[in-house]
Amino acid sequence: MPTLITPISGWGRYPVQSCELERPERYADFKADAPSLIVRGQGRSYGDASLNENGRVLLSERVNRMLELDVEQGILRAEAGVTLAEILEVIVGKGWFLPVTPGTKFVSLGGCVAADVHGKNHHHEGSFGDHVLSLAMILADGSRMNCSATENAAVFWATVGGMGLTGIIGEVTLKLVPIQTSQMMVRHHAAINLEQLFKLLQAPTLDDRYSVAWIDSLATGRNLGRGVAMFGHHATTAELGNSKPNPHKPARSRNLPFDLPAFALNPLSIGAFNALYYHKEGGKQDPFLSGYDPYFYPLDAIGQWNRLYGKRGFVQYQCVIPEHGAHEGMAALLHELSASRRPSFLAVLKRFGAQGRGMLSFPTAGYTLALDLPIRDSGLFALLAKLDGIVLQHGGRVYLAKDARLSAESFRSMYPRYEEWLKIKSSIDPDNRFSSSLSRRLNMGRPA
Ligand SMILES: Cc1cc2nc3c(=O)[nH]c(=O)nc-3n(C[C@H](O)[C@H](O)[C@H](O)COP(=O)(O)OP(=O)(O)OC[C@H]3O[C@@H](n4cnc5c(N)ncnc54)[C@H](O)[C@@H]3O)c2cc1C
Questions:
Q1: Tell me, which fold does domain 183-405 have in CATH?
Q2: Which amino acid residue places its CA nearest to atom 35 of ligand 1?
């Protein structure tokens, strides 16, 4: 099959590495026949998870057929290269929705399984892998294997969250959730500081199927961590009443046509945006209807918004801190960030439910914070190493699907089930054929 050597990156545009790309047309064409290979879905992981410097990268984008949809039971079987956007086009009109969705729909099914992605409903419904009924895989020796929570369960839970390192995910069977309408019923509540924000996210009277909070990362002092908590659920037909929004009209997406100069996002411009956003969104206490697109995927409305951060790219730092130390830990992280005067254009706080069953799954009961930080100089990496220290001190971890710079040592301390995962990985891929730039950086896949 023809290959092409070309520089590619993840969504954060850092790092950029030369990889040998191969684009199979069919699932049957996927072969584990290179000494080092990794599958790439839509390349929406931020760092180096879907990169393989000087090695093979199998693109799954053409392996994107929907194979079976049971509209009575809400069960979908599809090839792993199908995107969530393509699935939504088909299922929403039939009264079904994705059980879990990340903040962009331009991701592949395989990518969602491999990163065991979470959504705004993690505190109620867990992560993506909890809703996967089975996987069809190609292993390093070329053999095929079906796996699920009951069949070859160890391989299944090593693959869910396993960042593509156990084998090629070829097909995914997914349980969908029923919806009455395509609209969301949403409420916003403003909080003047982090303490209030935590209270809002924990309040049983406000809780809803989906919840998330936006944080003004530049607020300091008594206002440190001020933000807006946002709650929502799929609107019922009764809630929709007489309003007749067009349910299936996809949001128009405009591409950012050029890289913004690095200085465009600075404490002044972000501070002004944050003040405006806080007052506008925080004021929406009465429930209101929103289409599912702007509700779940607001950033998808601007194609290539990653160019906002300039040519050097950016890092998304996402961590989770277990419940008991979460408030103190998050406050410490926000202190460091605001003291550094490195503005984060996006800062999102979210409550997680119980730890998932994937051996390397990121979510654990507690709170997760995600920050987008432009790369201006190497000082950023020193700051992020400091943040790792705070996260470790509070028993937390960093999300591999967003990572581009964590150390192997910190990774081992953050993911206590790594050795268990490694045993399974070594049993089905003894030569560590499935490897990526991320796995080499974190020294994953071989005994230390
Ligand atoms: C705007 C934005 C918002 C996001 N919001 C969230 C969020 O709310 N929650 C969340 O959890 N994540 C979120 N993400 C991260 C994203 O959901 C994950 O990184 C996801 O894995 C990307 O899917 P992809 O198809 O682009 O995979 P890629 O980035 O191409 O690959 C990611 C990993 O999956 C593996 N992989 C992909 N396909 C296969 C396959 N067929 N077989 C084996 N391995 C495979 C790759 O090897 C790699 O390790 C967000 C990303 C963006 C850009």
A1: Alpha-Beta Plaits (3.30.70)
A2: 164
Q: Distance (Å, rounded) from C-alpha 175 to C-alpha 70? A: 10
Give 3-state DSSP helix, strand, coil % of the chain, rounded to 5: 30, 25, 45
What is the mean predicted confidence (pLDDT) over 89-105?
A: 97
How open is the CA angle 345-348-350, to the nearest 5 degrees?
175
Give yes or no for a contact between 326 and 393, defined as CB atoms under 8 angstroms apart: no
| Ligand 1 atom with the shortest distance to the CA of 300 | 1
What is the 8-class DSSP label of residue 221? Answer: G
The residue whose C-alpha atom lies closest to atom 6 belonging to ligand 1 is 102
Distance 318 CA to ligand 1 centre (A): 14
- Which atom in ligand 1 lies closest to the alpha carbon of residue 117? 11
From the CA of 305, give the closest atom in ligand 1: 1
Distance of alpha carbon 242 from its chain centroid, rounded? 35
pTM for this entry: 0.95
Instruction: Kindly give, in sequence order, each residue whose CB lies less than 8 Å from that of residue 102, ignoring residues fewer than 6 positions away.
Output: 84, 112, 117, 118, 119
Q: Say which residue, 328 or 252, is predicted with more confidence.
A: 328
Annotated domain spans of the chain? 66-179, 183-405
Give tens-digit pLDDT for 31-84: 888 999 999 999 999 999 999 999 999 999 999 999 999 999 999 999 999 999
* Residue pLDDT, tens place only, 211-259: 999 999 888 889 989 999 999 999 999 999 877 655 445 545 566 566 6
Pocket around ligand 1 at a 6 A CB cut-off: 11, 38-45, 49-50, 60, 80, 102-104, 107-108, 110-112, 114-115, 117-119, 163-164, 168-169, 299, 401, 436
Annotation: CATH topology of 66-179: 3.30.465
Q: Using alpha carbons, select from 57, 48, 47 the residue that is nearest to residue 20.
A: 57
Contacts 24+ apart (CB under 8 A), 258-266: 258/307, 259/307, 259/310, 259/311, 260/307, 260/308, 260/309, 260/310, 261/310, 262/309, 262/310, 262/311, 262/312, 262/374, 262/376, 264/308, 264/310, 265/308, 265/309, 265/310, 265/343, 265/345, 265/374, 266/343
